[in-house]
Design brief:
The structure is a homodimer of 321-residue chains. The first copy, chain A, is an all-alpha fold. Chain A has helices at 4-15, 25-35, 42-52, 59-83, 94-98, 100-118, 126-152, 158-183, 188-215, 218-221, 227-230, 236-244, 247-259, 264-274, 277-298, 307-318, and strands spanning 87-88, 91-92. The first copy, chain A, has one domain: Farnesyl Diphosphate Synthase.
Amino acid sequence: MHSFIELSKIFEEKFNTRHFPAHTKTLYDPAQYILQLGGKRVRPVSVLMGNELFDEITPDAYELGTAIELFHNFTLIHDDIMDKAPVRRGLPTVHMKFGDSTALLAGDVMFVRCYDYLNKLKSTSLHKILHIFNHTAAQVCEGQQLDMDFEKRDTVSMDEYVNMITLKTSVLLAASLQLGSILGGTTERNQQHIYEFGKSLGIAFQIQDDYLDAFGDPEKFGKLVGGDIVANKKTFLMIRAMEVADEVSKNELMQLMRENPVDKVEKVLAIFKKCDVDTWANELKEKYLQTALQHLEDIAVLSKRKEPLKQLALFLIERQN
Amino acid sequence: MHSFIELSKIFEEKFNTRHFPAHTKTLYDPAQYILQLGGKRVRPVSVLMGNELFDEITPDAYELGTAIELFHNFTLIHDDIMDKAPVRRGLPTVHMKFGDSTALLAGDVMFVRCYDYLNKLKSTSLHKILHIFNHTAAQVCEGQQLDMDFEKRDTVSMDEYVNMITLKTSVLLAASLQLGSILGGTTERNQQHIYEFGKSLGIAFQIQDDYLDAFGDPEKFGKLVGGDIVANKKTFLMIRAMEVADEVSKNELMQLMRENPVDKVEKVLAIFKKCDVDTWANELKEKYLQTALQHLEDIAVLSKRKEPLKQLALFLIERQN
């Protein structure tokens, strides 16, 4: 058994290599660029942990983890194009550095490469693994589309937002854990519990993400604080504020979103604080964490094997970037 | 055995259905939209023909053909975004109708769907099929990147252009035929000959494509004639013209590309004709066709089984759209 930190190091060492051919550098260098920006490698480490919860880590888990990390980075490149995001992990996004067209294509070829790694799996469950992977990938696309649809709408309900976030963020974490557990040879029932653990944890993760965008420390955060506010994103915080703000504050929020003044971020944050949205977000995050931990509890395996997953949960919801 | 026309009809009937879920319509309707614009379905029909050259068509061939047609349409959606193309098959491109971001994402999810179909294959050669498919998909991305790189350069040699076209266009046709032949259970040697047949035919196909862009009948062509000229694409025709034009015409061509006057297409076409580029293109096309037919000849199977592939070759190089 390894701790979360140990598994992160082990994965990072294997992953820290060039994943693309040396030729056609104008395509592959931009793809490699985003991989070298670092990142938490939460999803591939989740594959390793899902595996090790039930059995020794198989070589397949590294291939599968690499595939999932490449998939995740492919979505980051394309999302950044769609969101016109200038900065990721403190450095220029791929499309800012190499142009939109090359970024689009670098994302595409990263997605192809991801299936190259999946095709290396020796597991007899390859068919099921591909099915879950493809289903999850489609859900992530659906989530991104809903996110964009919501930007054009005046109001989004909390249920709609949770559904969108589940698709865009949670299912990939959940699937990473489940796929790892399949490599570990566990039962269908245990697979479902680890999936649900990941799904609730993913929502808690997103609440923290939304929280950090508004209230994070700019030096630690690595992205521009208030980016969601500038982009009129309906986040957990914004939807909550629209639900609980008095009429005056609500109208002010709507006006700020329509008119985009230079002091928009500052003014929106003031309303968030007036509505205690920050406290509320921390409580909601805690609620999802508890649901996740209950599913972890329900997995039929020795409880000492579950320690790394508890560490993962705490890491994800306490992180500052 | 079926003729090319028969196989086209059989495939089209099976393919003419919704390939995406009913929900998240804002994502899936744009993806379905491009599939309903029609098209020649050359690549999936090539899968069927590669299969039937050696054995009865297996159900796998339809799944594989569908996967390849979805992959092809995914590249069309993304290429049209990159090329800022307004029209495809006489109708608005996906990004013109639904916006760049949705088109990008609709392409992504179509690519996911393509792997769903691949995952339905029953073939014991699935591993090899996925390997060839992934390798080909990466080559297509490389070809598109080189195409964009060339647009920024003043000169491109004929060899560089042929290499780019081979990657961007030919290898997918070649791989479709080879993958079909794998389903037909043929030898490695026959697989290589059918691959090379497709590769040379794909180049002949592209020569015809470049020719039609310049000299096609606007009513039959379905795209804006002269689109490559407007976009300063280095086509077979442009590269040849730059090679053989006298100094005056060459300088005029370079000036036209720099300055983009309103009568650019007209003036470039006049130079093309003065240099006999149209006659040259037809001869080059014929040369590649003969190479292709020689590889077809070399496939070790009864020659009457090769008839549909000869029909395919003639269809591709004589088509007017």
